[in-house]
Amino acid sequence: MLEFLNTNPAFDLLKKDHDTVKDLFDQFENAEGRPAKKKIVDQALAELKVHAAIEEEIFYPAVRRPVGKDTMNEADEEHHVAKVLIAELEEMDGRETHYDAKFTVLAENVRHHIKEEEGEVFSKAKDAKVDFAALAQTMMERKATLRAKGVPPAAEAAMVAASHGKGDSPAKAADKPAARAPKTRTAK
Ligand SMILES: [Fe+2]
Ligand SMILES: [Fe+2]
Q1: In this structure, which ligand is nearest to the CA of 56?
Q2: CA 124 – ligand 1 centroid, Å
Q3: Quick one: which of 7, 122, 9 has its CA closest to 66?
Q4: How far does residue 75's CA lie from ligand 1's centre (Å)?
Q5: Which ligand has its closest atom nearest to the C-alpha of 67?
Q6: What kind of fold does domain 9-180 have according to CATH?
Q7: pTM of the model
Q8: CA triplet 112, 54, 106: central angle to 5 degrees?
Q9: For residue 55, how far is its CA from the centre of ligand 2 (angstroms)?
């Protein structure tokens, strides 16, 4: 009944973004055909890039102290892994052997991250002396700017570009001709 007293505008804004990407992950699982899948991936990557930027620029610095460095450092590393996968997917055209797998792993990683954020991070931050209304306003304005002008390139994008498409060694190994695999002996 008094649930509205517990609402937090900053958490609400971030949760809405989370719901948007989770919905895109579900859509991807049910989509058929390359163009449909690629379109969903492109949308999800655009959403994730804007979302990660407002968290890293505005939300994370504001709650880092009350939430504690261990939890926040883990969140940082989860963003880093996601950004590597995002940068790799952005360099792909959707027809590669590991494209779907890469996006699926990104989705699994982000779903896990969202659970921790909405659970651990939000619960540890909720009583902090932070002006969450002002924080939400700043994030909303920054989102509009990032959508209009684009998200500045992540360090991970430069890292992936520098690997010239050779950064995913397991995918490269799997794509090599089967002739390289050792022959199995047949018992005589
Ligand atoms: Fe996050
Ligand atoms: Fe988030």
Answers
A1: 1
A2: 15
A3: 122
A4: 6
A5: 1
A6: Four Helix Bundle (Hemerythrin (Met), subunit A) (1.20.120)
A7: 0.91
A8: 30
A9: 7
Distance between Cα 31 and ligand 1 center (Å): 26
Residue 2 has pLDDT above 80, yes or no: no
**How far does residue 172's CA lie from ligand 2's centre (Å)?**
31
Distance of CA 56 to the CA centre of its chain: 12
Tell me the CA distances in angstroms from 103 to 11, 79, 120, 176, one per residue in order: 26, 15, 25, 21
Distance 51 CA to ligand 2 centre (A): 6
- Domain residue spans in the chain? 9-180
Kindly state the DSSP code that residue 31 receives in the 8-state scheme.
Answer: -
Q: State in Å: Cα 156 to ligand 1 middle.
A: 16
| Structure confidence by residue, pLDDT tens digits, 48-93 | 999 999 999 999 999 999 999 999 999 999 999 999 999 999 999 9
Count of Cβ atoms closer than 10 Å to residue 60 Cβ: 18
Q: 51: Cβ–Cβ under 8 A, 6 or more apart, which residues?
A: 14, 17, 18, 21
Q: Are 57 and 76 in contact (CB under 8 A)?
A: no
Is there a contact between 117 and 75 (Cβ–Cβ < 8 Å)? Answer: yes
Distances (CA, A) of 38 to 16, 29, 34, 77, 160: 23, 12, 6, 26, 20
pLDDT tens-place string over residues 24-56: 999 999 999 999 999 999 999 999 999 999 999
